Amino acid sequence: MKERLEALKAEALQELAQVTSQQQLAEMRIKYLGKKGPLTEILRGMGSLSAEERPIIGQVANEVRGAIEAVIESKQEEYQKAETEARLRAETIDVTLPGRPSPIGATHPINKVIQQIEDIFIGMGYTVAEGPEVEQDYYNFEALNLPKNHPARDMQDSFYITEEILMRTQTSPVQVRTMEKMKGEVPVKIICPGKVYRRDDDDATHSHMFTQIEGLVIDRNIRMSDLKGTLLQFVRELFGHHTQIRLRPSFFPFTEPSVEVDVTCAMCKGSGCRVCKQSGWLEILGAGMVHPNVLEKGGYDPEEYSGFAFGMGVERVAMLKYDIEDIRHFYTNDLRFLKQFAHL
Question: Which residues form the Aminoacyl-transfer RNA synthetases class-II family profile domain (predicted)?
């Protein structure tokens, strides 16, 4: 049996010397050291040996196993080292190469205009208020002097979820919620930016979802002249100090009197061009004195308090400010368009 062990050792070492891959090495380990290998079979036959032979054969068997395992482990280390070196060579980085530029995002033009408008009004002492986009009919219409079946509701074709819940068509509900929260205290001086939703067909100037910013001021002795002065200061900060405004009579259910506000065309400075259709003026927002019914529903005595409100579409302002002809550019995620505003 000792001779068989020595012959097995010689055979194993000879075959291991010819191994050229980790796969072959694993096969050799199973062949000679596995449960069905020749070494295991020899050890199972030790039961037929005498008591004197068993320790001798056992020691030889352990030496053979140790010799085979040593060669296998040595080759395993060699293969692992070679594999690591090959991977390092493949992953070598040339630190002298210039870095690949990573594209950096920029503020979306709509958000940029919102931030500019917020900064202007915060500088005039306003605070920013927010409210839910999924709104109750009461806040979106009734509290704003548009009761059920009011014909002016047809001006805003709405996305209703239930009979009393809808996607808000304007940010004016935030004004009502703010008045309720203030519980009759003054002054109220807020702007309300946010998304609004109407069932419009999307085209160059309309979108079913767009952004509005509305403003509300309530206090004692608020007059139309305060509204005009506020809006004049705002448009001059936004479009330049040469800008003038023009107020035209209009109708909104929640303000009385109501006006449409035009600004001198930013392209031609009022001389007339294709953008303003040769008029020298561009419509920018609607405004007016808060209707007494709205004040009353908000918890304010219209005999003691007055206020003004205004609202503008941010996309409209951005289109005028940056001379953009199609509102859909804001929502198509065209990087060629968006990159133009990265450094403005």
Answer: 111-340
User: Cis omega before residue 257 (within 30°)?
Assistant: yes
Contact 33, 39 (CB under 8 A): yes
User: How deeply is 323 buried, as exposed, middle or buried, from its count of CB atoms within 10 A (0-12, 13-18, 19+)?
Assistant: exposed
For position 1, what pLDDT does the model report?
Answer: 63
The answer on whether 11 is annotated among ligand-binding residues is no
- Cα first-last separation, the chain: 90
Give the amino acid at 290: V
162 to each of 140, 142, 165, 303, how far by Cα in Å?
14, 16, 5, 36
What local confidence, expressed as pLDDT, does residue 45 receive?
67
pTM over 0.70: no
Segment 175-180 long-range contacts (CB within 8 Å, at least 24 positions apart): 175/129, 175/214, 175/216, 175/298, 175/309, 176/139, 176/143, 176/144, 176/294, 176/297, 176/298, 177/129, 177/131, 177/139, 178/129, 178/216, 179/216, 179/218, 179/295, 179/298, 179/299, 179/300, 180/298, 180/299
pLDDT tens, position by position, 124-177: 999 999 999 999 999 999 999 988 887 777 766 889 999 899 999 999 999 999
Q: What is the pLDDT of residues 179-188, one digit of tens each?
A: 999 999 999 9
28: buried, middle or exposed (CB in 10 Å: 19+, 13-18, 0-12)? buried
- Residue 208, token pair as written in the block: 């079913």
